[in-house]
Amino acid sequence: MFKIGFDAKRYFTNATGLGNYSRDLIRILSTGLDNVDLRLYTPKVLEKYSSSSERLTPILPRSIEGKLFPQLWRSTGILSDLKRDQIDIFHGLSGELPIGISGTTVKSVVTMHDLIFLRYPEWYGYWDRKIYNKKFKQACHEADSIVAISEQTKKDLQTFF
What we know:
single chain, 161 residues, alpha/beta, 6-stranded parallel β-sheet, 7 helices
């Protein structure tokens, strides 16, 4: 059984955009691939986006620290869960990957949607720009593969990172 893990925070919490992308991609993979186990790593599950598919397994933080600090769990703590669950590939669906994933045996894919915060910095606050820049740059450097959702995003990734 091949195991694919997803950063499914947006799958369960975003009603549009990143949430729709996540749900559609995972739905298509869950109906199109045999002998694949799909794990949805998320700090919380909203029932309105839960799936009845037996092929989709939501994974919540198991440690006390992960439950108390879900953002920290998504950034680093999730690595121990990925190793324990013997995940073959982890897909960061919204421009993020756990810090240090490149130092594990887990292969990684990150989807980059846009770099608007760099192209139009005046639309974002200082701290938002700093955080997005750090997260997205780290993800691009650690990922085994990068999915750019448009030609413009691909060009922006090459220009800025």
